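2024-03-11 09:14:02 DEBUG pipeline.ingest accepted 1 chain
2024-03-11 09:14:02 DEBUG pipeline.ingest length=236
2024-03-11 09:14:03 DEBUG pipeline.predict start
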Amino acid sequence: MSSGYLIRDMPAHDRPRERLAQHGADKLSDAELVAILLRVGSKGVSVVEIAQQLLKQFGTLGALARASIDELRQVKGVGRDKAIALKAAFTLAQRMARELHGEAPALDTPERIADLLRETVRETTVEQIQVVLLNTRKRLIRVDKLSQGTQDTLLVHPREVFRNAILANASAIVLAHNHPSGDPSPSEADIKVTRDLIRAGQLLRIEVLDHVILGRATQERPRDYVSLRELGYFYA
């Protein structure tokens, strides 16, 4: 029989496993989640207290995940088996993160850009520009909502467009905005803004791959978007 302080010995409302089952993992603290991995405490010290000590010792979850088995065992109450369980759990989490990142599709067509952004502008009643930041493989870094215009005018400055791209170390961007009227055909202002941004990107060595305008599909126009690159407005 274990001499450790078991989770089942804790009051029912304090048991991390029970709380997770009832309320979901997102409702638990970092210490409670770590405690579930540890399973039992040690010599009168609760498993949650050991988890709290681990977090205090290493400071952040990232530092805890990078700790070696020997380093984990330096914390009182963490023996070989607990250290191995923690190392296995964090290693799986790191592998899953790499796997998910690797599965991100290349956003190399206007159709994929439209699929990514369509729902975010569906109910918007003013023009809103978004900048899709991409890495060297044209995979998503993130999408930045940049500015809001009026019902038919978009106000944007190259400084705003490229500031976050530089900070995120993006190698390329795709511009996108919506036309609340439903007609995605580019205006003269859309074309001018696009060409200005292409030139600014060339100076900064951040390629502007496309400008996708989202509208609504109709019987005569089955696609709900247009690509300014496909329409020939990009310089060769």
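2024-03-11 09:14:41 DEBUG pipeline.report The mean pLDDT is 85.
2024-03-11 09:14:41 DEBUG pipeline.predict end
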